[in-house]
Design brief:
The complex is a heterodimer of chains A (302) and B (452).
Chain A (H helix, E strand, L loop, with lengths): L1 E12 L2 E12 L3 E5 L6 H8 L7 E6 L2 E2 L8 E4 L11 H11 L4 H14 L15 H13 L5 E5 L7 H16 L3 E5 L3 H7 L2 E6 L2 E7 H8 L3 E7 L10 E9 L2 E8 L5 H8 L5 E6 L4 H12 L1
Helix pairs in contact in A: 2-3, 2-4
Chain B lengths: L1 H15 L2 H27 L5 E7 L15 E5 L5 H7 L7 E5 L10 E5 L5 H22 L5 H8 L7 E4 L5 E4 L1 H35 L2 H5 L5 H38 L5 H16 L5 H23 L2 H29 L7 H21 L6 H8 L4 H8 L6 H29 L9 H9 L3
Parallel strand pairs in B: 1-2, 1-3
Antiparallel strand pairs in B: 3-4, 5-6
The chains are: A alpha/beta (302), B alpha/beta (452).
């Protein structure tokens, strides 16, 4: 059952169409990727979900009922362009944002202590924000986003400004939040993290949805005719009428070869033609990365 | 509603706790006092040097010892000295300058010259011309051969000191001093101008800070942009009111101190009569009588001023100040907030600031003119028109303004500020989330028409 749905959303600013009949349906307790090139309309859609702006047409549903203004209490939003008051103290500021989400001061302090300890920034509670590194400010912002235990959390580029170690900590926190029951909308340009995190995606380009579905389905669909073969030792595979070789690498005493078949055919047929070529370690349908799919889809559309 | 109060509290506390706020609150009354006292002091003290001035007459003896010596200047009459000789030597002979008078002076006003190395002070020139004018008048009168002229002149000589008494609508009579009213008008108008400007600009800076640091992106997912804007405006208004309240308390405290220490806490009018004698008896031994008299005269004058000041309608002044501050501030602060939301940084605000500052500065100029003539039609219209009324009306109230004018002006003020807050909110809502776009008046006009 979807926790959140946006149906046929259209939004224009003067003559400019930011969203044209876009729909998304976010299943409960899943991570939903919202992808698209710069200026595609993602931020506008996110702002509509947050009720910062209203759509010109279309409807929004939360838990099968219409979205109401009070729902901001159960939504957490980490915007891509985000900031903190530089002159304010970290703890005081975190409490302020929590209060704006409806938490009492005491409750906010209690939860903040927990999170500050968890993300190892307790010592910074009484410091001014301007004294913090960018990564630490991001941690504070991450905490203020999830502090009120929202049902729906929207992360817009959550990993910018983090070093790989901290990015990994945040990634695990996001997965942990989903485990605990949260539903997450995740907007990013980092396709690697999409593969790792997202269950479903929607790709928006020029205000329109051009691709949607579960990540696995999409990758399988786009990968229909490609396979990856790994042999032991250096192998020089020859092309025959059935396939062409896209890529061939030799490293660590292994040859990794990517094939593309001319048409749909059972994997057995290909395997049988290469069986004698050497000692096969693995044979897999090669899934294209989300990055490749993203570029291909957007470029063909353009 | 609850969220607005959270925002108001933050806006209020972060500002009130700043050192600069505390310093300003204490320092501003002192600066204000300095603004009034220093020019007066400068005017009084501008030239303390003692001057000796040589007076030369060209071939006549009409003005011998006519100009009396003053505190700072002696006039030495030098008969039969050649001007050309003295011109070269007066400096070394210790003279400040030469006053050369031609006998033609009786008929030709400018047949007189003061030759000096430095620019002579206005007071000195005034003294010379009034003394000579008197003498010439006397000479001319003498020419009519009136009998007993000296006695007549003595008899005619009078001194006038106008005591202003105002009767208000209820028939109550008050002794007022135009000086006090002027001072109040000046302080009221100027303070209003400063507060509206300072706190309005604070709103703008706050909005720009939130926009450039992108804090606003985080906040608007919790509260409506309008709530954020109103929270900020109200929070800063409270800062202004706090400051004003502290100033009133400080002033009342100072008045109380003056009353107890200087006037010994007696009924003021009674004091006015008895105090001089007290002082006299207490200080007789140590101070020469003449000086003591001068002092008690000064105290009498001070007491009179003090009484006049107390006779002002303070209740009306303070209440209308608070009202005009709130509405005037709301009007301008909402415009400032809209401007802040439309730009990406403070330097970009200039093109929008000009049309906003013009009415404020115009109001201040009219207010200064109002003190000369509080009943003029310019003063009237500017104290009714909402953009200038807070400043101009504050300058008029100490002189007494009919209630219907105050109410009309307040009514228009309320209508206008509501309209402006509404428009500003629409601009703010769009502008605050718009980056990198050079905003123009045309662009802002478009934002006004966007829906939800």
């Amino acid at each position: 059952m979807p926790l959140f749905e946006a149906k046929n959303i259209t939004k224009t600013f003067g003559n400019f169409t930011a969203l044209d009949n876009v729909s998304i349906s976010v299943p409960e307790q899943s991570i939903y990727g919202l992808l698209g090139p710069n200026g595609a309309g993602k931020t506008t859609l996110i702002r509509i979900i947050n009720q910062i702006t209203g759509p010109d047409a279309g409807e929004l549903f939360m838990n099968d009922r219409k979205l109401v203004p009070g729902d901001v209490q159960i939504i957490g939003y980490l915007p891509e362009e985000r900031g903190l008051y530089k002159k304010m103290k970290v703890g005081e500021q975190a409490v302020y944002f929590a209060q704006l989400k409806g938490l009492t001061k005491a409750e906010a302090v209690k939860r903040l202590k927990y999170w500050f300890k968890k993300l190892d920034i307790v010592d910074w509670w009484g410091k001014k924000v301007e004294e913090l590194s960018k990564g630490m400010q991001q941690k504070v912002q991450f905490i203020t986003t999830v502090l009120h235990e929202p049902k729906l959390i929207i992360f817009d580029e959550p990993f910018t400004g983090f070093d790989p170690v901290n990015a990994n900590i945040i990634k695990n926190e996001i997965l942990f939040l989903r485990e605990r029951g949260a539903t997450i909308i995740f907007s990013t340009h980092n396709m690697g993290s999409v593969e790792e995190l997202c269950d479903n995606i929607t790709l928006i380009n020029k205000a329109k949805t051009i691709l949607e579905g579960s990540v696995d389905d999409i990758r399988r669909k786009w990968a229909a005719n490609e396979y990856e073969l790994v042999f032991e030792g250096e192998i020089n595979l020859k092309e025959n009428g059935l396939f062409t070789i896209i890529d061939s690498r030799f490293e660590d005493e292994r040859s990794t070869i990517r094939l593309k078949t001319e048409r749909d055919m059972p994997a057995n047929e290909i395997l049988s033609t290469v069986l004698k070529s050497g000692k096969i370690i693995s044979f897999n349908p090669a899934l294209p990365s989300m990055n490749e799919i993203f570029i291909r889809v957007v470029e063909t559309r353009n | 509603m609850n969220k607005i109060s959270v925002i108001i509290r933050r806006e209020y506390l972060t500002r009130v706790r700043k050192k600069s706020f505390i310093i300003m609150t204490i320092l501003a009354p002192l600066l204000m006092a300095a603004l009034i006292v220093v020019p007066t002091l400068i005017m009084m003290n501008d030239d303390k040097d003692f001057k000796k001035i040589a007076v030369i007459e060209e071939g006549s003896d009409l003005f011998r010892n006519v100009i009396p010596d003053t505190k700072d200047a002696d006039f030495v009459y030098l008969p039969g000295v050649n001007i050309d000789v003295l011109k070269n030597t007066f400096d070394t002979a210790g003279y400040y300058g030469i006053l050369w008078i031609s006998p033609e002076l009786i008929n030709t006003p400018n047949a007189i010259q003061l030759i000096s190395k430095k620019q002579p002070p206005i007071g000195l020139l005034d003294h010379i011309s009034t003394s000579l004018e008197k003498e010439i008048e006397k000479q001319k009168l003498l020419a009519y051969n009136i009998k007993d002229l000296d006695n007549i002149l003595k008899d005619v000589k009078t001194n006038v000191s106008v005591q202003t008494i105002r009767i208000d609508d209820s028939g109550k009579v008050k002794t007022t001093s135009t000086g006090i009213s002027m001072a109040l008008a000046y302080i009221g108008g100027f303070l209003m101008y400063m507060l509206v400007f300072i706190f309005g600009a604070q709103v703008m800076r706050g909005v720009i800070e939130e926009k450039t640091s992108r804090v606003v992106e985080v906040i608007v997912s919790s509260v409506k942009p309008v709530q954020l804007m109103m929270g900020k405006i109200v929070g800063i208004a409270l800062v202004g009111l706090t400051q004003f309240l502290i100033w009133i308390i400080l002033t009342v405290g100072m008045v109380a101190v003056v009353k107890t220490v200087v006037l010994k806490d007696k009924d003021i009018t009674e004091v006015a009569q008895t105090m001089p004698q007290n002082i006299m008896t207490q200080t007789q031994e140590s101070i020469p009588p003449a000086q003591a008299e001068e002092m008690s005269e000064g105290l009498k004058e001070f007491t009179r001023l003090f009484e006049n000041a107390m006779n002002q309608d303070w209740f009306l002044i303070i209440l209308s100040f608070i009202f005009y501050f709130l509405t005037g501030y709301l009007l301008y602060a909402s415009v400032f907030a809209a401007i802040g939301s439309a730009v990406d940084n403070e330097t970009e605000t200039q093109q929008f600031m000009l049309p906003v500052t013009i009415p404020i500065i115009l109001a201040l100029m009219v207010a200064m003119g109002t003190m000369q003539n509080p009943e003029s039609s310019i003063a009237f219209w500017f104290s009714i028109i909402p953009f200038t009324s807070p400043i101009v009306m504050m300058a008029r109230i100490p002189f007494g303004v009919p209630y219907w004018q105050i109410f009309l002006s307040m009514f228009l003020m309320v209508i206008t500020f509501i309209g402006f807050v509404w428009m500003a909110a629409k601009i703010y809502r769009t502008g605050i989330l718009m980056y990198g776009k050079k905003s123009s008046w045309k662009e802002i006009w478009k934002w006004l028409k966007y829906s939800g």
